[in-house]
Amino acid sequence: MTAAAIASRQRTLDSVVATARRNTWTIGLLGFLALLLAFTKLIQPSYGVAAVQGLGIGVLPLAFAAVAQGVAVIGGGIDLSIGSMMALTSVVTATAMQGQGEEFGVAVVVAVLLLGLALGAVNGALIVITRVPDIVVTLAMSFVWAGVALLVRAAPGGGASHWLMGLATGSFANEWVPKAAVVLVVTVAIIWIPIRGSRLGLSIYAIGSNRPAAFRSGVAVGRTRFLAYALTGLFAAFAGLSLTASTGIGTPVPGPYTLESVAAVVLGGVSLAGGRGGVFGPIVAVVVLQLIATDMTFLNMDSNLALVAQGVILIGVVMFGSLIQLRRARA
Amino acid sequence: MSATPPANRWLRVDAWRGLLRDRPIIPLVGLLVLLVVVIELADPGIVNPEWASVILRASVPLAILAGCQTLTMLTGGIDLSVAAVASMAGFVTATLVNSPGGVIEGIAVALVAAALAGLLNGIGVGVFRVHPLIMTLGMSFVVLGLANVWQLQMVQTGAGVPSSLRTLGTGTFLDVLPYSLVVFVPLMLLILLGLRRTGFGRLLYAIGDNPVAARLSGARAWQVLIALYVISALMAAIAGLLITGLTNTASVSLVDTSLLPAVAAAVIGGTSILGGRGGFGGTIVGALILTVLTALLTVLGLPEPTRQVLFGAIIVVVAAAYTRVTAES
Amino acid sequence: MTITATDLMLEATGVSKTYGAVVALRSASLAVRPGEVHALMGANGAGKSTLVKILTGAVRPDGGRIAVRGRERTVHSPAEARRGGLVSVYQEPSIIPDLDIRANLRLTDTPLEPFRHWLAELGLGDLDLSSMARRLPLASLRIIDLARALAIEPDVLMLDEMTAALPANLTERVLEVVGSRRGGERSVVFISHRLSEIASVCDRATVLREGETVGVVDVTAGSDERIVELMLGQIIHEMPAVAEATAGHRGTGATPRLAVRGISSGTKLRDVSFDLYPGEVLGVVALEGQGQDELFDILAGSERPGSGELLVDGSAASFRHPADAIRAGLVYVAADRAEALLMQRSVRENIALPFTARIGRWGLIDLGAERQKVDQAVTKLQIDARAGSEVRRLSGGNQQKVTIARWVAGGVRTMLCFDPTRGIDIRTKQQIYLLLRDLAEAGAAVLLYTSELKEVQLVCDRAIVIFGGRVVAEVGAVDADEATLLRAAYHLRSDAPMPEQVAAAVVDAASVDRPPSEVAGGPEARG
């Protein structure tokens, strides 16, 4: 083998190692998920295809919500209106699709995604223009979007195109691969991965990581924040669509998704200070949390303890992280 | 008007800016009065002592919960566990109504449990430097989960809202004065005095304004934060008891819908979520404004959704106004 | 020979900027010719960094004119300045910590090959571009920042304290690269505190003082004196000498208020020992980054020493928190007012802050007593508290006085002042000098680090000089003239010739006629 070839192999290896090191947390989470699945199979031998598919459908809305929150938090912000945007996009979908043809449903999906983008853009514009802290603006907008959702539809109801519901249920290629998981991964891969590699994506990481340095590096901070929130809105719309897809109706009252999405991004390795982490970590975190809850019922434990466990894990992980930082600062 | 020289006009704008910056409570009270006038115009005769009594009864628990947010926001934090703690307190008291110790035992257990949750919050935020948002969010999951477990344990003993709590929540004395004021007024005076006239209050502002300066002046933030989150949890528990009495229901998710309005009331009252600026006086007026606004929209026949939209819009507008006047020129 | 405006690469005139009540720039001007390396000099707080930030669009000026190649410009953002050919390497690196180097380059549209070229020139050729910026040392980040700026071939490259955080070998490389820009098409604005560096690479120097341009000097042998004179201005001549030889006050038998014994901290501070007696002002003199920051952090209780011992009034003390130091009577006045003040709170709350810091004092405040103490301190320091409802609305000088008043109000025993007069006006400076003397006369011990060497003779009874983390000299007030202190600060023997020669040595090292390989393989490569 020539020296050049060895060098190039070394370089490939280096970059693989670098990528792995950068994603230690996500890889660790995936390992934990595998262990958890094995453990689940052990304590509940009947855990099989149906359960895995159920898991896929069950986590889809929260997983999209976590991706949405992930984008906002990576950009150094936070979005407390995700649950409300989900409710709004979900009722709009269910209302528009009710009694309509399958083709019309496609148009509805496109329109709802644009709606999500617009909702997020309004959040972002208000944050940039008013200079009010992100958390206050999105808190206020959570009232607004929830109110609008109730205006669209006062009570749960509506319908969903069959193809949309079909997207979330069943399996793909292999019966062990839930279609919901494929939809999730493909959507995120198509939208987020190209953006992450682009100047916009780099800018989002940059404003989250160190805003003054980003500004001095020539990043248009205001525009980037605006676009980050628009993206958050887009993913919140995906989350709203998957709510409708999994239930077949639209519910105007926001679920617990906002705060749970914050928990998921933190567990998924995204730093609340911004700039660090990715969107796949939060997705894995959502699945892990769901599976822990499932296991606790298998173990005949009170299902409510799952909620306790979620809180304890959330606090524990963050505490562990800040302990490490404190020790490093002292060293 | 058009004849007014521009310089003069600017002076007046400046005066308004100064007023909103230094004494935000004055324009806030003005807004409150305006809302009351509008509601009277919309439904002549509605504003009377009984109406005021109803408004007060609804505002008191909200003001207390908003007080939790005010105190924690002054240090640059937030307490998202207040809803879970408040619900838990009301629920626990209700389940223990038939216990040997009766209501007193129930309230004592509830307060101890709340203080414990607050203590853990304080340790997490103060000692381990966990972001308050995360710490209190995690704590709310823990408290809610444990309250659910408690619910399953206690379902046999039967839960009922003790009549004393109902009286406290809904009863009045001297015809129109709600009993909840008996709890609220001393608490309010304690907080107002505490923030202005005690070393502890000063330190809350100091830590929120500049933690480094507070540290260099010899303040140990962890002590302050632990005390703060215990106080916040206890206040939440008191609010929970009042709400339980007011609504005559005991449920582990009773107060959830008041969490975000509580933050909103503090923000409208002029407390900065970034810390170091604000007070409880503004928060009380903020809570009253939100309650009166709700009543007004009901009178106007505007449905709940519109109310929410307006809520959100008002928060954004008020917060933007504060940001403008307090920004360094 | 006259140079018309259109011959200038960059011309700024009458640039001003105020932050609230703090004047950062009063009227600064700067004219840079093509192909020159132009030094921007000034004491700390003179406004150099602000001027650079304005020129590159990071900060908006309140007034003034900026012209590039004779055409007037308003620069709204760093991105716009970049496109216009103005690029700066700031003191804080503009590298995003959570992106790898390659992503940082893409973020700024920096071409890779020129970047690699400059990186190699600057001695970091073997850097792995996929490393996360967060994991790289500050020195590397600054070099990367510089290479990135060079890679886009800016018309005017501005280097703000580029060499401050660099080890000697990298400093040499940077000077070499900067020096090689002379006589070309493009210009460099070079900010440095080190006169030797200015002498070795710069053609001319613009001197700022108190936010104003006070002179432009051709850099030649012997121009250092002129630059230093301009930087320091007339303060000394206007000031009455407040220091008297009080060194005699302390009897040989007196217990030192603070005895520092063999304090070390990592590589920053090595075996530092000195005594601070009641009734004296002890000066600390050091160039930037010689360990004085660490020393003061340790004495103020913000950090713990790696080894060594502190004795307060003769008994051993160890501080785990500033509160411990305060209880031992050691109070700290920071140079950075943003670090010390509650900007949104009132003068009164700021001054009273230490009173309530202890847990035993959390209860009701005796407002009358508090007001009395605060008012006394306000009067004593002559604080103009008219805008006192928010400290951020005060002027810089008044703000600094508030940070001192905080300790004066409680009664001072030992005051640790870290460059307390940085960036404030002359009148306030004088007041602070007098106050420090008063405190000492009243029996307090004062430790004063100052970046303005003239202050030593004005205020101190004696001074210690720190270089490379060690105390290298102790000078009595009488002998503490600027030249002596500067020599000591550069760790030169008192009979050794001063910076010109140091500079000459650097020039030698950087001279272009030597083959680059030999320069690259410096002493450390051979050793």
Can you tell me about this structure?
The complex is a heterotrimer of chains A (331), B (329) and C (527). Chain A is an all-alpha fold and 331 residues long. Chain A has 14 helices and 2 strands. In chain A, strand 1 (171-172) and strand 2 (174-178) form a beta hairpin. The relative contact order of chain A is 0.18. With 329 residues, chain B is mainly α. Chain B has a single domain (34-40, 47-326), classed as Orthogonal Bundle (ABC transporter involved in vitamin B12 uptake, BtuC). Chain B has a two-stranded antiparallel ribbon with strand order 1-2. In chain B, a hairpin with a 3-residue loop joins strand 1 (172-173) and strand 2 (177-178). The radius of gyration of chain B is 21 Å and the shape is globular. Chain C starts with 9 loop residues before the first strand and ends with a helix.
Task: Please describe the topology of this protein.
The complex is a heterotrimer of chains A (331), B (329) and C (527).
Chain A: H1 3-22, H2 24-43, H3 49-74, H4 82-97, H5 102-130, H6 134-152, H7 162-168, E1 171-172, E2 174-178, H8 179-197, H9 199-209, H10 211-216, H11 221-247, H12 257-267, H13 280-298, H14 304-330
Antiparallel strand pairs in A: 1-2
Chain B: H1 6-22, H2 25-42, H3 49-74, H4 82-95, H5 102-127, H6 132-154, H7 163-170, E1 172-173, E2 177-178, H8 180-197, H9 199-209, H10 211-216, H11 221-247, H12 259-268, H13 280-299, H14 304-326
Antiparallel strand pairs in B: 1-2
Chain C: E1 10-19, E2 22-32, E3 37-41, H1 48-55, E4 63-68, E5 71-73, H2 78-83, E6 86-89, H3 101-107, H4 112-121, H5 138-151, E7 156-160, H6 168-179, E8 187-191, H7 195-201, E9 204-209, E10 212-218, H8 223-232, H9 235-238, E11 258-265, E12 269-276, E13 281-285, H10 292-299, E14 307-312, E15 315-317, H11 322-327, E16 330-333, H12 337-340, H13 347-352, H14 367-380, H15 396-408, E17 414-418, H16 426-441, E18 445-449, H17 454-459, E19 462-467, E20 470-476, H18 482-489, H19 500-510, H20 516-520, H21 523-526
Parallel strand pairs in C: 3-8, 3-9, 6-7, 7-8, 13-18, 13-19, 16-17, 17-18
Antiparallel strand pairs in C: 1-2, 1-4, 4-5, 9-10, 11-12, 11-14, 14-15, 19-20
Features:
heterotrimer, B: 329 residues, mainly alpha, ABC transporter involved in vitamin B12 uptake, BtuC, two-stranded antiparallel sheet, disordered N terminus, C: 527 residues, alpha/beta, Rossmann fold, 2 domains, 21 helices, 20 strands, disordered C terminus
